[in-house]
Amino acid sequence: MFRALSSLDRAFVGLDTALRTLAGSRPYGSGRPSPALSVSDQQNDAGLSPEDAKHSAALMRVNHSGEVSAQALYQGQAAAAENGALYSMLQSAAREEADHLRWTEERIEALGGRASLLNPVWFTGAFLLGYVAGRMGGPVSLGFLSETERQVEAHLQSHLRKLPAGDAASRQVLLQMIADESEHGLNARRHGAKDLPKAIQSAMHLSGRLLTTTAYYI
Known about the structure:
This protein has 218 residues and is mainly α.
């Protein structure tokens, strides 16, 4: 049975997730090992040129910032969840997204890069958007989730094409992330996601472009 969380409960959940996401201790994930570990020693990063490693690190920084936003988005929606089924679905997806957060952070470190300096901005904005969407009711909240996952999947597909050919480890991470994002979107539609107006979809796309363009450099 779903126990309705008090405002204080939700504040502590949100604060815990924010601290874990932004301080590097990471939210609790599902515990899945990184797909990068499936890459053999013969395919590791030793063959990457310094320029390729820098480019891969920047791409993974963008993806890491996207996962920071995903944590905030899911927690914002969960804070406003109107029933137990929706709350449980959001928290389950958030755990898988926490895996993505860890995997992308590990790839950034392996490639000699750093996380985005603007992650607190991405987290705050995404949490507010998620909370507003959640307050508009389950079908709209699920529609927002479904559209977000659709756009994220398209973005990850574009990064697969941009990755240096020698970065097999990052490629494996992105492939699993794409599979997970597709399943999250499908699950939202199974539970009654409402299609969002084209204007809102376009606004979401523009905000996503702002993050992807900025986080590549900062």
